[in-house]
Write a structure and sequence with these properties.
With 316 residues, the chain is an alpha+beta fold. The chain contains 12 helices and 12 strands. The protein has 2 domains: 123 residues, no CATH class; 118 residues, Endonuclease, Chain A (3-Layer(aba) Sandwich), CATH 3.40.960. Helix 3 runs antiparallel to helix 5 and helix 6 packs across helix 8.
Length: 316
């Protein structure tokens, strides 16, 4: 209730307990532009759906439960395939030993979990990124699971991101997988870990690498630098011995400043005698078929011409 004696109606989903804390009695809720969502949970009739607010209210109304699976992945900003990325389904999990969640519009799960696999983000109880990855191993195709895994283990750039450590490491993921040996999707999770690598900065970079492996190409080095030390130009992937640099330039590379930086990067590699192959969304769209053809062609030329490897010893 505000200073004028009027009730302070929430503008986001809320629980009955939260309404009472605002001085809003139960009989005042209905008929005031408020709709019931499910037992003890309400929302303003004109509220525009916002996933985080919906998830927070659900947690407040469901003690002992947490947001999980696809919903957790979306809130964490994890890479999802297009057929899942826009889903507004609300997934919640509870321990196996507790009663099942029965709420309208909720996809409920009963899980075996450990306390370090759920986090509290200002009242939003949610599975950690690592546990979310494991939960989704049951439904995600292998390549999509590898993309998400590469996102978890990549080393962030502190100058661009508000963190210095990766979200997970292969070691911590292996330990988690080991303690959930009977979980559905565990075999696919193990397969994904064998294919995950530190160094992929985007889903297309991971998919390009996997396409190369499927085509029988040697595994490339990731985040390959032209020389050791600060300020060295780097390639997304490549073969140092054959002096081949592979770049995937996505949509953000169309920015004028970024394009200028990319040209300087590629010229530096070319000046050192490297072959630079640049790929983009068109290559991603065709499953990297044309990219594989170009990489194979570059590798054949490198094997034929021994002068290509003349700078290998110096790392140039």
């Amino acid at each position: 209730m505000d200073s004028n004696g009027a009730f302070d109606f929430p503008t986001v989903p809320f629980t009955l307990g939260e309404a009472r804390a605002r001085g809003l009695p139960r009989h005042q809720i209905r008929g005031k532009g408020i709709e019931g969502v499910s037992y003890g949970l309400y929302r303003p009739a004109d509220w525009n759906f916002e996933l985080r607010e919906a998830a927070r209210a659900l947690c407040a109304a469901s003690p002992g439960a947490w947001i999980s699976h696809v919903t957790a992945a979306r809130l964490h900003g994890l890479i999802l395939p297009p057929w899942l990325g826009a889903s507004n389904d609300l997934h919640m999990s509870k321990p196996r030993s507790t009663p099942e969640i029965r709420r309208k519009g909720i996809i409920a799960h009963k899980m075996l979990f450990h306390s370090d696999e759920v986090e509290n983000d200002e009242g939003l109880f949610i599975s950690t990124r690592a546990r979310t990855w494991l939960d989704l191993a049951r439904i995600l195709p292998l390549n999509d699971l590898v993309c998400m895994g590469d996102q978890l283990i990549r080393v962030p750039r502190p100058e661009f991101e508000d963190r210095e450590a990766p979200y997970a490491t292969l070691e911590t993921l292996r330990k988690m997988v080991q303690r959930h040996g009977n979980l559905q999707g565990i075999v696919r999770a193990r397969e994904a870990m064998e294919l995950m690598r530190v160094g992929a900065d985007s889903c297309p970079e991971t998919l390009m690498r996997l396409a190369m492996l499927d085509a029988g190409l040697p595994e490339p080095e990731l985040q390959l630098t032209l020389w050791k030390g600060p300020g060295a130009p780097s390639a997304d992937a490549g073969y140092r011995e054959r002096k081949i640099a592979l770049q995937y330039d996505g949509a953000h590379h169309r920015d004028e400043m970024q394009m200028h930086s990319d040209r300087r990067r590629d010229k530096a590699f070319a000046a050192a005698g490297w072959t630079v192959l640049v790929f983009n969304e068109d290559d991603y769209a065709d499953g990297f078929e044309e990219a594989i053809r170009r990489i194979k062609q570059a590798l054949r030329r490198a094997w034929i011409d021994p002068s290509v490897t003349s700078g290998f010893a110096s790392g140039s």
